Amino acid sequence: MSHIINLPTHWRKKGMVTFTRQEIGQLMSVYGEKVSKGEWRDYALDCLPDMAVFSIFKSAQEQPIYSVAKHGAPDPRKPSKFIVYDATRMLKQSRSLLEVLQVFKEKKK
Length: 109
Fold this sequence. Notes:
Layout: H1 7-13, H2 21-36, E1 42-47, E2 51-57, E3 66-71, E4 81-86, E5 90-94, H3 97-106
Antiparallel strand pairs: 1-2, 2-3, 3-4, 4-5
């Protein structure tokens, strides 16, 4: 017999950090703009015990060109920290996802 699992609830019980529905919408909005311009081609979403990561690829065979990480606070009532990385360094960090996503509006990649 099959058993249905509500993944966000399941992950929270296990202490996994996840993006909220609103955060996924914000990420996909920027991602969609870049895909329509032909700059990005693929993405991956990972949920780990201490962070969630949205990785962006030019093609499926490459390393990610950018990663947006959500680092969870030990206390869920405290705000998370968002960081944008390129392949070699941290580009921007903030407590606001919209603020760190501005790095893609400033970049001409």
